[in-house]
Specification:
mainly alpha, 10 helices, 162 residues, globular
């Protein structure tokens, strides 16, 4: 978000960030308790249905094909259980490929463990689910984290990534 403010000519140090649960953000916006929110689905669909306007997308605006989530295992575990790790990687890649090509199934599966209303499910923007991390986007995140003082110690991406 700080980078989006900078790109628009603003001063990110002048922004007061308030931590809220995602499901509380639409109501806080509607009540005027906050001026803006960085929401993810399904809260994004709710905010838009309430007349909210997207002014920036930190995931999209930060880096092309931004990697936002990954699985990690300790070196000790991967060395002790290489067969399990390979099977997990293969199963995860297969499920991500399936999700990318079956959005209606994804929406249906979401109903098995959430209470997202159908109207919201129908309008949610689903992400891409790549099987491999985008190193360039992770380098950008590391640089921005350093620039904004988010780390006590900068991450060693070479040591963290395959």
């Amino acid at each position: 978000m700080r980078e989006a403010v900078r790109k628009d000519g603003g001063d990110p140090s002048a922004v007061h960030f308030v931590e809220l649960a995602f499901d509380q953000m639409p109501a806080a916006l509607a009540k005027g308790q906050i001026d803006a929110a960085q929401v993810v689905e399904p809260a994004l669909a709710t905010v838009k249905a309430q007349g909210g306007t997207v002014i920036a997308s930190n995931y999209v605006d930060t880096a092309a094909k931004l990697t936002v989530a990954m699985y990690f295992a300790s070196t000790q575990y991967t060395q002790a259980h290489p067969d399990i790790v390979k099977k997990f990687q293969a199963a995860t890649a297969e499920s991500l490929t399936y999700a990318n090509s079956h959005p209606d199934d994804v929406r249906q599966i979401l109903t098995t463990y959430t209470k997202i209303p159908q109207a919201t499910l129908d309008t949610m923007v689903l992400p891409d689910w790549p099987a491999e991390p985008n190193r360039t986007s992770l380098d950008t995140l590391a640089q921005l984290g350093e620039k904004d003082g988010l780390f006590k110690k900068n991450p060693d991406l070479d040591a963290l990534l395959p």
